[in-house]
Amino acid sequence: MQFHEITHENFLQAIQLRPKRTQYRFICREAVLYAIGRAYTAIQPTDAMPFVISYKERYVGAIRLRYYGHGVGFSTFFIDRKHQGRGLGRLALEYLVEYVREHFPSAEEIETCVIPDNTMARQLYEKLGYEYTGVVNADTTMDMEMKI
Fold this sequence. Notes:
The protein is of the alpha+beta class. 28% of the residues lie in helices and 32% in strands. The protein is globular and about 40 Å long.
């Protein structure tokens, strides 16, 4: 499992990644394309880092990271519809911990937010050790974090 910055070389492959149609309500496709496009044009803010996720040399998903001093947040995370059901989401989030420890050694936590009825994501995050912070955002998403 690896995270790759979006470049001129992988941009066309990156924009082909898509979740299942039934998952669009959990992931803003426009946010994915916007993040990828900003990376491609090199005008992304320094705190928003979109990546494609690879497994066995194939692009299988996407994730956007944001470093904020004492932690890293992730959003716009999905595994491509063709690669779902193989445990790659879990592997990617396990790799995320390694990646954060290596690239952001001062980070103490990883955080994300989840839509309450996204049962699969909630259960995966909980199994990996994420806990609810008690914060419910204006868009009704709930914040979760894991201490590392």
